Amino acid sequence: MAVPLVIDSLDFACNAEVRRGKIAIARFQRLQDYLVNDSGELGYTVTGAVDANGRPVLRVDIQSVVSLRCQRCLEELEHVLDIHTELLLAQNEQELKSLDEDEFVDCILAQPEMDVLLLIEDEIILALPVSPRHEQDGCMPGGREDGKAIREASPFAALAALKKTH
Ligand SMILES: [Zn+2]
């Protein structure tokens, strides 16, 4: 089951190879910093191809649901990942630099031993929202408790005010 997820990226692209499967989210170490829990798995497809200009590319498709922390109520937030990206393979640092100047392409350095797991993790981290939040009015548990706490506190405040006047 543990198929090695290492590819020779240029060969992979030129031979139009395809690698697809499922990976437990717990296997992505860097991703854990962004997640509330590491349960679940993701589905991925990595496809090698040559683009319209004859350049080698990797197409990366990732689907999953991950648990992020809402930055407003600090509760769990389910975030759907549906990533489709095309990465141009640069053959060396110089090419990478010149290709990177084109803002319409994403470019990575071709490697004879490219770790697909790291590649997928990079793409997920790039795609995560900087400040995840529930939809408007969607912050339920935390927001509700705050409201309750304020209401419970107010009778005491009223009592204190009463004591002062007498
Ligand atoms: Zn929220």
UniProtKB/TrEMBL annotation:
Biological process according to GO: ribosome biogenesis
UniProt keyword annotation of Transcription regulation present: no
Keywords for the protein's UniProt record, in alphabetical order: Ribosome biogenesis
Any one of the GO CC terms: cytosol
Assigned protein family: Belongs to the DUF177 domain family.
General function of this protein: Plays a role in synthesis, processing and/or stability of 23S rRNA.
Protein name: Large ribosomal RNA subunit accumulation protein YceD
Organism: Nitrosospira multiformis (strain ATCC 25196 / NCIMB 11849 / C 71)
